[in-house]
Amino acid sequence: MEITLLGTACAVGGMDRDNTYFLIQNREDCTMVDVGGSPLSKLAKLGISVHQVKEIIFTHFHIDHVYGLPSLLWGMWLAGRTKPLIIYCSSENEVQLKKWLEVIDIHQWPVLFEVQIHKYAWRTESLLIKEEELMITTFPSLHLGPTVGLKIQYKDKVLVYSADTEPNSWIKEQKQIDIMIHEATTAERPRVNHTSLQEIINYYPLERIDQVVAVHLTDTEPYDRVLDSQVIAIKDKIIIGFDFMKINL
Q: Kind and range of the H or E element at 187?
């Protein structure tokens, strides 16, 4: 299974980064987690057809995580898609999602595929996807409004995605994490509803986490200064994510 970071920037964007979202590719099928900037061109650069995107998981409904959806749907329509598209969102965001689909008037284009909305309860762990070797569940994040992180289990490996959050005890309590993709909106200073790279290092038991990939990054933040101040054992575990970075699980 391969994960590609399609964007790694915080809400204000970056000079060389789109807003944070990523793609999970399991054989031919793909799951997109949030939909940031230029999803059609990102898929084209990866050589992935819009027909391969089986489902979308929205971690929350802040604009920087959802604004690429109309473009993606438009591209699917132009490509003549007929296969249903599943969109996962929290129960609290279902009405907002349906209103948005009405505003962009997808039934008047008309789309030839069904958009199936699957709700999840964001305050508790919720099972979204269970296949032969892949399982994806949600857990509550500590952000502004309904927000979830994701636990992705593939064979005997575990990847945890924090989504937008303050340092989260749910993640801290996990026995073993192979890869943790965690937001780091700032490098050193704490910021409400978010996490700094320094907080990641101080808060989480990195001895139980094999690799950390920092995303939701801010161009002007001194991430390298934080890493350079760490002992080699910690520094070697942490990667500052970048657009089109590939992660194998």
A: none
Instruction: State the amino acid at position 177 in one-letter form.
Output: I
| The pairing of beta strand 148-154 with beta strand 134-140 | antiparallel
Residue type, 16: D
Q: Which domain holds residue 54?
A: 2-248
- Alpha-carbon span 41 to 24, nearest angstrom: 17
SS3 for 48? Answer: coil
d(CA 238, CA 212): 5
The pTM (predicted TM-score) of the whole model is: 0.97
In which residue are the tokens 């994510």 written? 241
Query: What is the tally of structural domains in the chain?
Result: 1
Beta strands in 39-186 (DSSP E): 53-57, 85-90, 115-120, 126-130, 134-140, 148-154, 157-161, 177-183
Structure tokens at 2: 């391969």
User: 65-120, pLDDT tens digit by residue?
Assistant: 999 999 999 999 999 999 999 999 999 999 999 999 999 999 899 999 999 999 99
84 preceded by a cis bond (ω within 30 of 0): no
- Residue 46 belongs to domain with CATH number: 3.60.15.10
Sign of the CA dihedral with 172 first, then 177, 183, and 189 last: positive
Q: What does each C-alpha distance from 15 to 19, 31, 69, 242, 243 come to in angstroms?
A: 11, 26, 22, 12, 11
